[in-house]
Amino acid sequence: MAKARKTTARNAKRPSLDPVTLEVIRNALPAVANEMAADLQRTSYNMMIYEVRDFCTALIDPEGQLISQNVGGVSHFVADLGVIIVDGMKRYGRQGFAPGDVIITNHQAVAG
Amino acid sequence: MLVVAIDIGGTFTDLIGFDEKTNAFIQAKSLTTPAQLVQGIIDCLNKSGIKSDGIDELIHGSTIAINTLIERKGAKTGLVVTRGTRDVYIIGRGNRPEAYNLLFHKHRPLVSRQLTREVEERILPSGEVHARLDRTSLKEACRVLKEDGVDAVAVCFLHSYVNPEHERAAGEALREALPDAYLSLSHDILREYREFERMSTTVVNAYIGPKVGGYVSSLKSSLGKIGFRGNLSIMRSNGGVMTPEVATERPVAMMESGPVGGIIASAQVGVALGNQNVISFDMGGTTAKASLIRDGEPTLAPGYYVGGYAGGHPVMLPMIDVVEVGAGGGSIAWIDDIGALKVGPQSAGADPGPICYKGGGTEPTITDANVVLGRLDPDNFLGGTMKLDAEGAARGIAEKVAKPLKMDTVAAAQAIVDIAIAKMSLAVREVSVEKGYDPRDFALVASGGAGPLHVIAIARELHIPTVIVPLFPSHFSALGMLLADERHDFIRTAYSDLANVDFAGLVKICEEMRGQARSSLRHVRGAEEQIALDLRYVGQEFTLSVPVTLAQLKAGNRKAIRQAFDALYEHRYAHHSPDEAVEMVNMRLGAIGKRAKLAFPRLGKGRPAKPARHRDVYLLDAKKPVRCPVYERDALAAGTRITGPAIVQELGTTTVLFKGDDCRVAPSGELIIKVGGA
Predict the structure, then answer these.
(1) What is the pLDDT along chain A (112 residues), one digit of tens a residue?
(2) Which residue in B452, B462, B494, B559 has its CB near the most CB atoms, within 10 A?
(3) ipTM, 2 decimals?
(4) Which of A24, A29, A75 is best to mutate for the B interface (most B CBs within 10 A)?
(5) Whether B542 and A52 lie within 8 Å, measured CB to CB
């Protein structure tokens, strides 16, 4: 993990990312959030989700910073997004996840 | 066999025919005559020199349906509904598609509340009659609509998709009371639940019905008068064709009748050249359209919103996914209030048309800009049959754009084209990049009269490495129509737990739909049927369409259907729940009548290409023109290589190659361009 981070940091300094890749990624990130929202809505068993879209989906980095968020849901949930990721990272640590893991939280002291 | 396709666009009416006996194509193009579309078709046929009595099949696509709706030029329409549901259509959905748009406006209903009349009747979701149809209230509704002088009536009762008995009876009464009105019964259009969407689809059908239905029947009789005895087919939004009778009954199915032809043809050209993944780019006189094709198949959406999801009209019929922007050859360049240069969405269309067409147009258009830049040859437009006024075009751009912006005329022309390119690139992006597809993995197929003229610049903008300019690019939508099969889609809501589903009942519904399909299909022999069940886990709202066979339904093979659903769910959402109960919502039937496949000729090998002449063209630098060789496409043999800068001219379009572009002519005739700098 430490090694991977070093590589990322080095790439960030180098402005060598070509403009098309940049644009593809810039558009793919919101597309990921929107696809999560579409999947949640389409697989939901709850009327508030599938009809009213009372939810929000997002990509967040390990520091709790927002990368992209879906459109068409309830966007002011943005207030709850970062803090729960930070809380999850604190509880399980950077090495505490495997692909496919899901954390479900309903912690009032964290997200209100 | 002689097959002819005619496609009416906003600016041009295109004709292409293929004669199997002589193995030759016939093409013609004429300006669209918006006031007399049918006359325009007859003129185009006359222009082509084809003898009407020799045509075996004529396929027609037209933008009349969507234009009637978007321009709100449909009929005065009444709506008859179940007591208590008068406002369903006006209210629409309750969610907020654009939560932060202060100026948001939901759909503007096509029927007023005054003309929406309630009738006493009630059928339950099971199909059982809860309250009999009350003749007195039905008579009253008929009286009001008659007095108000409606030209069309839509009838949409609650749960009529299960039991259409009352709707049929109301239909009979209305037909008697208003014999001249166009009538749409919801169960004839769409037998799927969801009140607002079903009502909207039925209302749209009634609203455009008199105009579009009248158009189709007048086309049929006008063709008959000039000796046409073959089959007439109408292109529909799902990528298939239908008979004029079906089109008159269900004009809503021809909403995207125009553009889909080009998308079908793009998919087929892509597959033939070994490119399963292509983006179809079609630029005509009024708009530019982009559509993504993956694995050789156009993307089919189950329904769509005419005018956009937020404020548009839902039409729940399958259609090919396409993104459209208001940039075409006729799009007008103008200066807004703060002095910025804008292009479109207003189009000079065919009448008055661009300034250079000399039809009385006074506003500079994208076509005028291309003439000023030397990219279009004023003496060789439409094979020289239409002389363009280059001086007029330059004067118009100088006065309306260059002078106010204190620019040079050529620079202003270049700016107009640049803005159009940026706009059209957005449409191509929307179908690719914005859905997470890398455009570099696709080839761009350019069509429409203005497509090949602009495609290289778009490919450069999006770094798409390969551009394909197919045969007959300016007749491409029409060419796609020659290749399209007949297709009808049917749907029935049949709600039940999969565990208790009555398979005998399902087979009965399926047979009913098959009967309906057979009566709508012309090519019954060898027809293909695709049956699917819309399934979901109990408690969910959305479904997945699971393909099944008639044999599975007849055998009551519940297990196989269940497994297919779980597998599809896993594929789509990366999880599934084998222990959850599954329920069924709809059954779908797609009936595909196979039309005879046409074998197109291949190009012969020949001598290396020689330019017909040279011409000065402004390419990247508006200060200095480049001396470009001009090739006639008809003279190009298979295997010919051309490197840019160069111009390839043909009837109806011009391909512009920039420095660094490398073009090769495929044995089947397409120009395959490796884009330099992409």
Answers:
(1) 334 444 444 444 555 666 656 766 777 788 889 888 888 998 999 999 988 888 999 999 999 999 999 888 888 888 888 999 999 999 999 999 999 899 999 888 988 7
(2) B452
(3) 0.80
(4) A24
(5) no
Q: Which amino acid is at B613?
A: R
Q: How far is A68 from chain B (nearest CA, A)?
A: 13
> How far is C-alpha B512 from the chain's CA centre?
29
- CB-nearest partner of A24 from B97, B438, B537: B438
A42 touches chain B (CB under 8 A): yes
Ranges of H-type helices in chain A: 2-13, 19-43, 47-50, 78-92, 108-111
Residue B371's SS3 state is helix
A23 vs B: CB within 8 A? yes
Q: B352: cis peptide before it, omega within 30°?
A: yes
Query: How far off is chain A from B433, nearest CA to CA, in Å?
Result: 6
Q: Under an 8 A CB cutoff, do B433 and A23 touch?
A: yes
A45 and B95 within 8 Å at the Cβ level: the answer is: no
Buried b (16+ CB within 10 A) or exposed e, B215-227: bbeebbeebeeee
pTM: predicted TM-score of the whole model, two decimal places: 0.83
Buried b (16+ CB within 10 A) or exposed e, B312-325: bbbbbbbbbbbbbb
The count of residues in chain A is 112
